[in-house]
Amino acid sequence: MTKKLYYDPKCTTCSAVVLACEKAGEAYEALLDATVIYPEGGGQLSDTGRIGDAVVSHAREAADGIWHRIDRPLAVGTTVEVMFDPQPRLDHTQQHTGEHILSGLAKTMFGASNVGFHMAETYATIDLDMPLTEEQLQRLETEANRAVQRNTPTETRVVTEQELESIALRKRAKGLKGDEIRVVWCGGVDSCTCCGTHCAQSGEVGMIRITAHMNYKGGTRLWFACGMRALQEAEENAALVDKLARRFSTKPESVLEAVTKQGDELAALKRTLRARTEALLAYRAQALLEAAEPVCGVKAVVHAEEGFTAQELKLFAEKLCACEPAVVALFSENGETVQYHLQRAEGVQLSMREACEALNAITGGKGGGRDAAAQGSAKAQAGFAELLCQYEGYLKQRLKGL
Ligand SMILES: [Zn+2]
Questions:
Q1: Where are the domains of the chain?
Q2: Among 153, 215, 391, 398, which is 20 to 30 Å from 165 by CA?
Q3: Which fold would CATH assign to domain 3-84?
Q4: How far does residue 119's CA lie from ligand 1's centre (Å)?
């Protein structure tokens, strides 16, 4: 078994004997008789560190002790120096202790239970079993920071299974057995069974920020950041607002107003543009129809544009079909792709689904639709104009046969 020295905050290095070392994929795994490296567990990430010259990237707890993933083999029976990387450990410990404070307060303030916790290198989340409002989350954040500022010491006790029964706790892990169960009291606001590492005083957590939240499985998932993570996030947000303010030539506190104003202006311009596009398309539709010769009373219009969206092609085709009996094949080249829209006027028999199949065969395109309209695209290619002439010939031939 491995002696767990990582719970003692003063213990930053230790000597250990290598009990076993095995190849594990590209790396190796070593079992030691003692370690200061925290193994992944209880929602907390593994420490990284060093064993002698070997770099430790991860540690895991197994039935026979703690196995360390290392980049080179160690000789069994030798004595080695073990140390953890202090910066990631502090970060993980701050997030973990912050989670206790937030979870304990969520329970006492709102009766919300923590039903899930996830910590990653760049974010941490807590799942609560009830929905919380914006205002409740704001109060939770404020109270969490008050608990940090009171700088309460963390208390840890190792108790037996029997002793555990008489201790009031927010949460106890299921199936705990034996006489070495760790119980922790954090920030004066939380108590639970826990195997993680904790700040000695709540003040060491630093700032706690709830950075985002969403409804999740009938409850709330909240993202939070503690210590330097919280500072970094606040700095990034401030830099972003500053950039926006410069872009809008305004003060940071006026950014929201400026963005809202620009959004409103953009919406008004879109409405104007749409009205003008419709008027322009109606005018051009008239010109195209005037130029087309009817075949058995139906006009075939095959026409190419540049830079039209699928929506604009549809609108144009509708304008063409609204005026008189016609079948319309509109194309628009957008870079390497040609989009198309086929439409027939009411009363015309030719199926656009069939017309689409013929078009795909001629252009090598992909698309489909219903009898009244079809859409698709083809690769832009040299000689596309000739293909369209060929297609116009096909449509006219089909109209003759109706
Ligand atoms: Zn804990």
A1: 3-84, 90-245, 272-400
A2: 153
A3: Elongation Factor Tu (Ef-tu); domain 3 (2.40.30)
A4: 12
